[in-house]
Protein backbone atom coordinates (compact mmCIF):
# COMPACT_ATOMS: atom_id res chain seq x y z
CA UNK A 1 0.00 0.00 0.00
CA UNK A 2 1.36 3.39 -0.97
CA UNK A 3 1.73 6.11 1.64
CA UNK A 4 -0.77 8.29 -0.18
CA UNK A 5 -3.39 5.51 -0.04
CA UNK A 6 -3.35 5.37 3.74
CA UNK A 7 -5.61 7.20 6.17
CA UNK A 8 -4.14 10.34 7.68
CA UNK A 9 -4.21 8.68 11.11
CA UNK A 10 -2.68 5.42 9.89
CA UNK A 11 0.33 4.18 11.84
CA UNK A 12 -0.26 6.14 15.03
CA UNK A 13 -2.31 3.74 17.16
CA UNK A 14 0.31 0.98 17.04
CA UNK A 15 3.20 3.30 17.95
CA UNK A 16 1.82 5.00 21.04
CA UNK A 17 4.87 4.51 23.27
CA UNK A 18 7.26 5.77 20.59
CA UNK A 19 5.10 8.80 19.86
CA UNK A 20 4.95 9.84 23.50
CA UNK A 21 8.71 9.46 23.83
CA UNK A 22 9.32 11.56 20.71
CA UNK A 23 6.85 14.38 21.34
CA UNK A 24 6.98 14.70 25.11
CA UNK A 25 10.78 14.99 25.17
CA UNK A 26 10.55 18.32 23.30
CA UNK A 27 9.13 21.14 25.37
CA UNK A 28 6.08 23.16 24.44
CA UNK A 29 8.17 26.32 24.80
CA UNK A 30 10.86 25.12 22.39
CA UNK A 31 8.33 24.27 19.71
CA UNK A 32 6.19 27.40 19.85
CA UNK A 33 8.49 30.17 21.08
CA UNK A 34 8.96 31.62 17.54
CA UNK A 35 5.25 32.30 17.08
CA UNK A 36 3.89 32.96 20.58
CA UNK A 37 3.99 36.74 20.09
CA UNK A 38 1.36 36.32 17.35
CA UNK A 39 -1.13 34.55 19.61
CA UNK A 40 -3.85 36.45 21.52
CA UNK A 41 -3.17 36.40 25.27
CA UNK A 42 -4.95 34.20 27.79
CA UNK A 43 -7.64 33.73 28.77
CA UNK A 44 -8.67 32.88 25.22
CA UNK A 45 -10.41 29.90 23.66
CA UNK A 46 -8.04 27.70 21.69
CA UNK A 47 -8.73 24.76 19.39
CA UNK A 48 -5.89 22.24 19.04
CA UNK A 49 -6.59 20.17 15.92
CA UNK A 50 -4.79 16.83 16.01
CA UNK A 51 -3.70 17.27 19.62
CA UNK A 52 -1.68 14.06 19.69
CA UNK A 53 0.05 13.45 23.02
CA UNK A 54 -1.46 16.59 24.54
CA UNK A 55 1.84 18.40 25.03
CA UNK A 56 0.64 21.59 23.38
CA UNK A 57 -2.85 21.46 24.89
CA UNK A 58 -1.26 21.18 28.33
CA UNK A 59 1.20 23.97 27.62
CA UNK A 60 -1.54 26.38 26.61
CA UNK A 61 -3.75 25.32 29.53
CA UNK A 62 -0.92 26.10 31.94
CA UNK A 63 -0.73 29.57 30.42
CA UNK A 64 -4.43 30.12 31.14
CA UNK A 65 -6.04 29.24 27.81
CA UNK A 66 -9.27 27.26 27.57
CA UNK A 67 -8.37 24.41 25.23
CA UNK A 68 -10.56 22.19 23.09
CA UNK A 69 -8.24 19.35 22.05
CA UNK A 70 -9.43 17.13 19.23
CA UNK A 71 -7.68 13.86 18.45
CA UNK A 72 -9.18 11.10 16.27
CA UNK A 73 -6.86 8.29 17.41
CA UNK A 74 -8.62 6.95 20.50
CA UNK A 75 -5.49 5.38 22.01
CA UNK A 76 -3.65 8.68 21.76
CA UNK A 77 -6.57 10.69 23.08
CA UNK A 78 -7.13 8.52 26.16
CA UNK A 79 -3.47 8.41 27.13
CA UNK A 80 -2.98 12.12 26.51
CA UNK A 81 -5.97 12.96 28.70
CA UNK A 82 -4.54 10.81 31.48
CA UNK A 83 -1.06 12.30 31.20
CA UNK A 84 -2.16 15.94 30.95
CA UNK A 85 -5.09 16.24 33.32
CA UNK A 86 -6.49 19.76 33.41
CA UNK A 87 -9.90 21.33 33.92
CA UNK A 88 -8.95 23.77 31.16
CA UNK A 89 -8.72 21.00 28.53
CA UNK A 90 -11.72 19.34 26.89
CA UNK A 91 -10.88 16.28 24.79
CA UNK A 92 -13.02 15.41 21.75
CA UNK A 93 -13.01 12.74 19.07
CA UNK A 94 -13.03 14.70 15.80
CA UNK A 95 -10.90 15.06 12.69
CA UNK A 96 -10.23 16.92 9.49
CA UNK A 97 -11.26 17.51 6.79
CA UNK A 98 -14.88 17.73 8.03
CA UNK A 99 -14.57 18.51 11.79
CA UNK A 100 -18.21 17.44 12.27
CA UNK A 101 -18.27 17.49 16.07
CA UNK A 102 -16.70 20.91 16.52
CA UNK A 103 -18.62 22.43 13.62
CA UNK A 104 -21.98 21.33 15.04
CA UNK A 105 -21.21 23.14 18.29
CA UNK A 106 -21.00 26.49 16.50
CA UNK A 107 -18.31 27.59 18.95
CA UNK A 108 -15.84 30.26 17.86
CA UNK A 109 -12.17 30.28 18.83
CA UNK A 110 -9.51 32.92 19.32
CA UNK A 111 -6.68 30.56 18.35
CA UNK A 112 -6.54 27.41 16.21
CA UNK A 113 -3.39 25.28 16.21
CA UNK A 114 -2.56 22.68 13.55
CA UNK A 115 0.79 21.18 14.53
CA UNK A 116 2.05 18.35 12.30
CA UNK A 117 -1.44 17.87 10.85
CA UNK A 118 -1.89 19.67 7.53
CA UNK A 119 0.50 17.44 5.53
CA UNK A 120 -1.68 14.39 6.32
CA UNK A 121 -4.44 15.77 4.06
CA UNK A 122 -4.38 15.47 0.29
CA UNK A 123 -4.96 18.50 -1.90
CA UNK A 124 -8.73 18.13 -2.21
CA UNK A 125 -9.04 17.62 1.55
CA UNK A 126 -6.96 20.73 2.22
CA UNK A 127 -9.13 22.77 -0.14
CA UNK A 128 -12.24 21.53 1.64
CA UNK A 129 -10.88 21.98 5.17
CA UNK A 130 -9.55 25.53 4.99
CA UNK A 131 -12.94 27.32 4.80
CA UNK A 132 -14.19 25.18 7.69
CA UNK A 133 -11.20 26.19 9.78
CA UNK A 134 -11.70 29.85 8.91
CA UNK A 135 -15.37 29.62 9.91
CA UNK A 136 -14.33 28.54 13.43
CA UNK A 137 -12.01 31.50 14.13
CA UNK A 138 -13.17 34.84 15.47
CA UNK A 139 -12.41 38.08 13.69
CA UNK A 140 -8.89 39.02 14.76
CA UNK A 141 -8.10 35.46 15.87
CA UNK A 142 -5.13 33.51 14.58
CA UNK A 143 -4.55 30.12 12.96
CA UNK A 144 -1.10 28.54 13.26
CA UNK A 145 0.16 25.82 10.92
CA UNK A 146 3.30 23.76 11.56
CA UNK A 147 3.92 21.75 8.39
CA UNK A 148 6.46 18.93 8.14
CA UNK A 149 8.70 18.34 5.11
CA UNK A 150 10.71 15.23 4.43
CA UNK A 151 10.21 11.49 3.94
CA UNK A 152 7.27 10.06 5.91
CA UNK A 153 7.85 7.33 8.48
CA UNK A 154 6.93 3.83 7.25
CA UNK A 155 3.19 3.25 7.27
CA UNK A 156 2.24 6.93 7.49
CA UNK A 157 0.40 9.08 4.94
CA UNK A 158 1.97 12.46 4.28
CA UNK A 159 2.10 14.90 1.38
CA UNK A 160 4.51 17.66 0.47
CA UNK A 161 2.64 20.94 1.02
CA UNK A 162 4.31 24.17 -0.03
CA UNK A 163 3.71 27.38 1.90
CA UNK A 164 2.38 29.24 -1.14
CA UNK A 165 -0.52 26.81 -1.52
CA UNK A 166 -1.48 27.11 2.14
CA UNK A 167 -1.27 30.91 2.04
CA UNK A 168 -3.43 31.02 -1.10
CA UNK A 169 -6.10 28.78 0.45
CA UNK A 170 -6.11 30.82 3.65
CA UNK A 171 -6.47 34.10 1.76
CA UNK A 172 -9.41 32.70 -0.20
CA UNK A 173 -10.97 31.78 3.16
CA UNK A 174 -10.65 35.31 4.56
CA UNK A 175 -7.32 35.12 6.39
CA UNK A 176 -4.05 37.00 5.99
CA UNK A 177 -0.55 35.64 6.61
CA UNK A 178 1.26 37.55 9.38
CA UNK A 179 4.21 35.21 9.92
CA UNK A 180 6.06 32.89 7.55
CA UNK A 181 9.01 30.82 8.77
CA UNK A 182 10.37 28.27 6.31
CA UNK A 183 12.73 25.30 6.59
CA UNK A 184 13.15 25.28 10.35
CA UNK A 185 15.43 22.49 11.54
CA UNK A 186 13.75 19.54 13.20
CA UNK A 187 14.09 19.91 16.98
CA UNK A 188 14.97 16.23 17.31
CA UNK A 189 17.92 16.79 15.00
CA UNK A 190 16.67 14.65 12.11
CA UNK A 191 18.63 15.99 9.15
CA UNK A 192 16.15 15.25 6.34
CA UNK A 193 13.14 16.76 8.11
CA UNK A 194 12.29 20.47 8.24
CA UNK A 195 9.26 22.52 9.24
CA UNK A 196 7.36 25.55 7.97
CA UNK A 197 5.44 27.78 10.40
CA UNK A 198 2.61 29.87 9.00
CA UNK A 199 0.45 32.19 11.10
CA UNK A 200 -2.77 33.72 9.77
CA UNK A 201 -5.12 36.32 11.20
CA UNK A 202 -8.84 36.29 10.46
CA UNK A 203 -9.93 39.41 8.68
CA UNK A 204 -12.71 41.47 10.24
CA UNK A 205 -16.29 40.63 9.36
CA UNK A 206 -19.75 41.03 10.79
CA UNK A 207 -20.34 37.35 11.52
CA UNK A 208 -17.59 36.74 14.11
CA UNK A 209 -18.79 37.86 17.52
Q: Shape, please?
A: globular
Largest sheet: 7 strands, mixed
Mean pLDDT: 88
CATH class: Alpha Beta
Ends apart, CA distance between termini: 46 Å
Tally of helical runs: 7
Overall strand count: 7
For CATH, the homologous superfamily is named as Vaccinia Virus protein VP39
Q: How many separate structural domains?
A: 1
Topology as H/E string?
Answer: HHEHEHEHEHEHEE
The radius of gyration computed from the alpha-carbon positions, rounded to a whole number of angstroms, is: 16 Å
Q: What structural class do you assign from the helix and strand content?
A: alpha/beta
Return residue spans where pLDDT drops below 50 for at least 5 consecutive residues: 1-8
Tell me the strand percentage band.
25-35%
CATH architecture: 3-Layer(aba) Sandwich
Strand arrangement in the largest pleated sheet: 3-2-1-4-5-7-6
What name does the CATH topology carry? Rossmann fold
Percent of residues in helical segments?
25-40%
Helix-strand blueprint:
Elements: H1 16-24, H2 28-32, E1 45-49, H3 55-62, E2 66-70, H4 74-83, E3 89-92, H5 100-105, E4 109-115, H6 123-135, E5 137-149, H7 163-172, E6 175-185, E7 194-202
Parallel strand pairs: 1-2, 1-4, 2-3, 4-5
Antiparallel strand pairs: 5-7, 6-7
Amino acid sequence: MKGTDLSGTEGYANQIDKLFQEYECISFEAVHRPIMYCIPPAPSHLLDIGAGTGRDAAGFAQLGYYVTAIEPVSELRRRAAQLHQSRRIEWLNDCLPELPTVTKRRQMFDVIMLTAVWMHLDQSQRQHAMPLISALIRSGGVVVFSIRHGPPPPGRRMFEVGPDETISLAEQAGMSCIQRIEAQNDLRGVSDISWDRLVFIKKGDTNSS
